[in-house]
């Protein structure tokens, strides 16, 4: 994958960075931890402009995360309820779980989005509860932009400073991403095994 990312940035420049960051947010296994540091390295070598790299990466990331937001917003809470009820054990969540999560998000949504955009693997997923909770779009976009610019700037700056050692960033951040994913899978398996419909509880 790294060769594909590098060749895309080398051949397509800012457009390539934008497209890769869109893809990274739609399909999280594509790592921004490699995309932006290499783009920063290219800027350090004079192949690209540092500000252009930052703007292209941030714009692509925001566009990708908006797709998840609108998908969740269009699905809506009632249809999401119905879908989870239909899937039952596979969904591992009940209407009560969903309502509690939405209530929590209504109280702490701003911080959830801001901090979530700085956490690998969570960066994309945080758009879904934002959409389901009907967080106002402009509010979601503004908060996401702050978090996205910060994350993109950190990765771009690391690649710029490290030059040929840009891949070191991936070596540090990738275990965190993997850890988050593994934790999510463990929690899902636990909930899948112990799940009971509400009517069976108590």
From TrEMBL:
The topology of this chain with respect to the membrane is:
Multi-pass membrane protein
> Does the keyword section mention Translocase?
no
Q: Which GO terms describe its cellular component?
A: plasma membrane
Q: Which residues form the VTT domain?
A: 30-160
InterPro entries for the chain: DedA_domain, VTT_dom
Q: Where in the cell is it found?
A: Cell membrane
Q: What is this protein called?
A: Membrane protein DedA, SNARE-associated domain
Q: Which organism is it from?
A: Pelagibacterium luteolum
């Amino acid at each position: 994958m790294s060769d594909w990312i590098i060749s895309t940035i080398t051949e397509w420049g800012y457009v390539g960075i934008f497209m890769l960051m869109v893809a990274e947010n739609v399909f999280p296994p594509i790592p921004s931890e490699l995309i932006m540091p290499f783009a920063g390295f290219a800027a350090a070598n004079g192949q690209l402009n540092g500000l252009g790299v930052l703007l292209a990466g941030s714009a692509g990331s925001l566009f990708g995360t908006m797709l998840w937001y609108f998908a969740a917003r269009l699905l809506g809470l009632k249809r999401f309820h119905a879908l989870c009820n239909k899937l039952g054990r596979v969904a591992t969540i009940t209407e009560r779980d969903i309502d509690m999560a939405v209530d929590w998000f209504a109280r702490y949504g701003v911080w959830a989005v801001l901090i979530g955009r700085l956490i690998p693997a969570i960066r994309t997923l945080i758009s879904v509860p934002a959409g389901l909770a009907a967080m106002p779009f402009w509010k979601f976009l503004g908060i996401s932009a702050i978090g996205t610019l910060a994350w993109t700037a950190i990765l771009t700056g690391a690649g710029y400073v490290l030059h040929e050692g840009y891949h070191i960033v991936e070596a540090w951040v990738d275990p965190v991403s993997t850890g988050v994913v593994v934790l999510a899978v463990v929690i899902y398996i636990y909930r899948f095994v112990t799940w009971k419909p509400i009517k069976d509880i108590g």
